[in-house]
Amino acid sequence: MYGIALNTTELLMQLGQIPDTATLCLEDACPYMTQKMTIHFAPEDAQIPVLSWQLAHQLEPHLQNHPSLRFFRLVPISQEQGWPVPLKLKTFDGVPPGRVLFLMANLKRGLGDMLLLMPILRAQAKSLEERGWPSQISISSANKFKPLFYRQPFVDSLFPECPLLSDVINYDYVIEYGLHIHRMKHLVGVQDWREIDLRVELHVPDEVIERWHSEFPGDRIKIFFNWISSDKKRSLSLDYFQAVKAAFPDARYYTSQVKNFKYGELFPGGPFNLFPKEKSLLDLFGILSQMDIVITANTGIAHIAAALGKPTIVLFTGRLYGWEGYWPDLHRELYPTMYPIGLEEDLQLDPETLPTKIRHQVETILAAA
Q1: Fewer CB within 10 A of the end CB, N or C, for the chain?
Q2: pLDDT higher than 80, residue 67
Q3: CA atoms of 363 and 285, how far apart (whole Å)
Q4: Predicted local distance difference test score (pLDDT) of residue 352
């Protein structure tokens, strides 16, 4: 693994001095990494933040090229160098049981990717327990993803993206996770993903649900609609939303448009923009947990809503990023309440028939309620 240290050469060149400490946050390299770290010029071993080998290699170009990150550098730390670090594993076969820490290995894995990892990590903990290992695993994760692990029974301890060495040395082994779906399948020890429980589930603290419950009147159907994706190629025209609103005029409509800072109705009759009050993933969980139906071109929102068990109509308008081994065959096992449009049609949406397809799905969901 690697530790993070001050880049004394860059500090001298830019500042003319070397401070005792500097604060590092990796949010400029990855928006999900929001951990604030104090990096010491002369640290005690326990104070050093560490990260996995693959994550370090992905991060290194950012440290070299991004102005806000150039004051820091990576230093390898290993048992061979005398560091008290756990043994790095590639497989669990033939290894005596012990405490294992799963270190995040991917810089650009998004929200959906993390949710799709949940059943794999759950199965991994079960597989290790059957081998005589502890029944729960410890995980490092991008700091912003911490709410995903709330009340997940397979988690022992949860660390941010760069845990301190003082935490890491309490483990016997470390292993990287999230590199590739086929490698994860090998680690879990299955030939087909249907051999494990694939359901993706999220849990929301009661206080978050209660905080948002008062925002939503209970006398009308609540529909959340998001037509803008972080990937422009997946975004849709607002006209599709207007067609839905015309078909179901008695519903209340909500949205979360992160680039529109107006709180309240964006158009007469909705949707009502909730973004100014959405301060964290937990708040987004609280909002979506109140909805009767979620319709979205943003797959991150689709993953969350379906993992909360909400009827979710997701519009697949572009290619799938990663985890192709899951899609489209296993989406019903992963998310029983997900209603995809486009996923089984070669990711092609017909603009002429899309409003009709959305309306039919809403009618199907309402009829089953």
Answers
A1: C
A2: yes
A3: 24
A4: 81
Domain boundaries for CATH 3.40.50.2000 within the chain = 206-368
The reported pLDDT for the residue numbered 322 is 53
CA dihedral 270, 276, 281, 285 (to 10 degrees): -40
Q: In what order do the strands lie in the sheet with 155-159?
A: 87-88, 173-177, 100-104, 137-140, 155-159
CATH architecture of 206-368: 3-Layer(aba) Sandwich (3.40)
Whole-prediction pTM value? Answer: 0.91
- In the structure encoding, which two tokens stand for residue 72, read together? 């820091």
State how far Cα 83 lies from the chain centre. Answer: 31
Confidence of residue 320 (pLDDT cuts 50, 70, 90): low
